Amino acid sequence: MLAYLNCHTEAISLIQPLSESEHHDAFIHSELSLIYKKLGQTEEAIRHIKEAVFLDSKNPQYYLQLGDLFHKKGYINEAILSYKQSLFYNDNNCITLNNLAISCKDNHQLEEAIDNFQRALSLCPDEPYIHFNYAQCLLLSGNMTEGFKEYEWRLKKDDYKNYLRDYQKPYWRGEYSNSTIVIFAEQGFGDTIHFVRYINLVKERGLKVILLCHEELKELFMALQGLQGVYSFQEALPEFDLQCPILSLPYIFKTTLDTIPAKIPYLTARSDKINKFKELTETKGTLKIGLTWAGNPAHEDDLNRSISFDYFYPLLSLKGFTFFSLQFGEAAKCSDESLIDLSSHIKDFSDTAGLIDSFDFIITVDTAIAHLAGAMGKETWLLLPYTPDWRWMLNNSTTPWYPTVRLFRQVERGNWQGVIKEVVNRCKQLKF
Question: When comparing pLDDT for 28 and 416, which is higher?
Answer without folding.
Answer: 416
